[in-house]
Fold:
Amino acid sequence: MSFISGDASEIYKLGVDLAQVGAKSIPAVRQVMSDAGDAFANEWRSNATATSGEHGKHYPASITAELAFSVTSVAVDVGPESARKQGGMGRGFEFGSVNQPPHLDGLHALDGIQARVDRMLDSAIGHLFP
Structure:
């Protein structure tokens, strides 16, 4: 059996650095997710304004973004809020009904948002990794 011996101090330093990344990144990730959620909601509202017509004039204002936390994640919940005026009609506007075709405003707003979030996260926390 062979053993490799040598100076492991750099590995220990890396371990210490990595242990600090989580605590430093949480506030930055929270801000990025908040900003990304707002951008997504704004784009969705803009799309909905263009497609909802007079019968759905209140629907765009029902689209909100709210941070959601768990022990292991920071997420953002974006979409029509049913408690707001015409918010409960979101499913009909998005996916259609017997009265109208699907608008897919949220799906169109989602196009490209992932790449944007990736860039925002890299800018906010990329420098924290050794």
In short: Helices lie at 9-51, 90-95, 105-110, 113-125. Residues 10-128 form one domain.
